[in-house]
Amino acid sequence: MRPTSDRLRETLFNVLSAAGELEGTVWLDLFAGTGAVGIEAASRGARMVYFVDSSKKAATVLRENLAALQIIDGYEMHEREVESAVRLLDSLKVVCEFVFLDPPYANKKAYEDVLGFLSQSSVLAENSVVIAEHDKHFDPGERFGALERYRKLEQGDAVLSFYRLA
């Protein structure tokens, strides 16, 4: 578990806030770990956050964090593999304005698999934004099907790649 740094998370939300309102949005936090990004989204007015992580340890920490912050609704936990959770949400016709994915940096195939699936999934609406956090020494790619990168934000060893449907 490598949580998104506080500084990078702050930068992410400053960028997203400047681009529009976060109030009432739906988030999908993939490879959620401690849940820091999804919890930040909730604190900034997200209506719903779907947390996904297959790690029992991460899910336990995430539940503890939600309880400590007295967040009792407006979220769902999916303690399962990311690909399986995204397929489930797709089948339930869940639509998210924002999807954040932060797989373990060593799992480079996860970027291709998840971004490829999202590019053809009904989880994304026309104006949804997908943000992938990755190591600065690895570039997940410019395009995945209909998903196209439109911005890269580098901070220290981490990079945020922003994608939307072309």
Going by CATH, the architecture would be 3-Layer(aba) Sandwich
* Order of strands in the sheet with most strands: 3-2-1-4-5-8-7-6
Question: Fraction of residues in helices?
Answer: 25-40%
CATH class categorisation: Alpha Beta
- Described by the principal axes of the CA atoms, the overall outline is globular
Number of domains: 1
Total strands: 8
Radius of gyration: 14 Å
SSE run: HEHEHEHEHEEEE
Low-confidence stretches: none
Structural class: alpha/beta
CATH superfamily: Vaccinia Virus protein VP39
Terminus-to-terminus distance: 32 Å
Total of DSSP H or I helical runs spanning 4+ residues: 5
Account of the protein in words:
The chain is of the alpha/beta class and 166 residues long. It has a single domain (6-165), classed as Rossmann fold (3-Layer(aba) Sandwich), CATH 3.40.50.150. The chain has helices at 6-19, 36-43, 56-68, 82-91, 108-119; strands at residues 26-30, 48-52, 75-78, 96-101, 124-135, 143-144, 147-155, 158-165. Helix 2 (36-43) links the parallel strand 1 and strand 2. Helix 4 (82-91) packs parallel to helix 5. The mean pLDDT is 93.
Task: Describe the structure using short key phrases.
34% helix, 166 residues, Rossmann fold, 8 strands, alpha/beta, eight-stranded mixed beta sheet
Strand-helix topology:
Layout: H1 6-19, E1 26-30, H2 36-43, E2 48-52, H3 56-68, E3 75-78, H4 82-91, E4 96-101, H5 108-119, E5 124-135, E6 143-144, E7 147-155, E8 158-165
